[in-house]
Amino acid sequence: MSEKKGRFSSYAILVPIEYHFKKEPRLYWKFKPASSRDELLMTTFATSESNFPGSNGQTVVRYPNIIEIAWREIATLFGGTNIPTSEISQEDLEKCDTQEDVNKLVLALPLLNNDATIEQVEALLGSMPHLMVSELWAALGEANPGWGPRKEKKAS
Question: Is 123 a residue whose pLDDT tops 50?
């Protein structure tokens, strides 16, 4: 019996990849496979001057920096996550008697839909520790070659 292949399976991953964080393995993030349209959107974003918030709150026109590019790559290929979009209040945490109670509380918090907008995903990324976002961006590059932080080529 021959194995069924997708129409582009020789060129790309075809299914979302689920990544579990190293220090928080119960948390995951899914990456969609990158399409040529995604590549075009990222190239346009990375090479076009745009309006960005300045340090004084006023809008400035400039090219995106590396962190903004990382956020946009992660948001463009967002396929889902179980990371809540809001924090657990200290008051609610204190009501929990066991870790199971905490887990139930976390699962009851709002999550991003798989079809979340880039702005919604970037808002969640902005609330996360930078180390966690950096780990996520590296995982994105493993899941989608050509994306994520640039890798040094090994000397042959």
Answer: yes
Query: How many domains does the structure of the chain reveal?
Result: 1
Are 40 and 72 within 8 A, CB to CB? no
Position 4 scores a pLDDT of 55
Asked if the structure places residue 10 within a domain, the reply is: no
4, part of any domain: no
On whether the CB atoms of residues 41 and 50 are closer than 8 A, the answer is: no
Q: Map tokens 């930078």 to a residue.
A: 130
Domain span at residue 46 reads 17-143
**In whole angstroms, what is the distance from residue 86 CA to residue 132 CA?**
16
Reduced to 3 states (helix: H, G, I; strand: E, B; else coil), residue 33 is coil
Longest CA–CA separation in the chain, Å: 64
Residue 50 above 50 pLDDT? Answer: yes
* Confidence band, pLDDT 50/70/90 cuts, at residue 1: very low
Residues 17, 138: Cα–Cα separation, whole Å:
13
